[in-house]
Design a protein that fits this description.
Layout lengths: L3 H20 L3 H4 L3 E8 L6 H4 L21 E9 L2 E8 L10
Antiparallel strand pairs: 1-2, 2-3
Length: about 100
């Protein structure tokens, strides 16, 4: 959803990074660490097999409640380089992730 001028600046930046990597004998990207984070919901839904129950033929089946996500969620920060994942860290609730921490 970037505007055309933002797309052009991203392309120029990535081309500069690629030429820098080429000039450094492919050492630039191998020394680069990237981070991303995502929110993960904290619930463990049952499979159909786990929720199966024996019942008689006459009574109605037991009521099933809709599986909803818990109110609890955790932010997971993941760091990786050209070799793979370096660190996966669950950020405690109420913590701010900054360059200082």
């Amino acid at each position: 959803m970037l505007a055309d001028e933002n797309k052009a600046s991203h392309v120029a930046m990535y081309q500069a990074m690629l030429s820098r990597d080429k000039g450094m004998n492919r050492a630039f990207f191998s020394s680069t660490v990237t981070r991303d984070e995502t929110w993960m919901l904290m619930f463990n839904p049952e499979t159909k097999r786990q929720s199966a129950q024996w019942k008689h033929t006459n009574p109605p089946p037991p009521k099933k409640f809709r599986v909803t996500a818990s109110a609890e969620k955790v932010m997971v920060a993941m760091f990786w380089d050209s070799e793979g994942v370096i660190l996966t860290h669950c950020v405690p609730k109420g913590t701010t992730v900054t360059g200082k921490t």
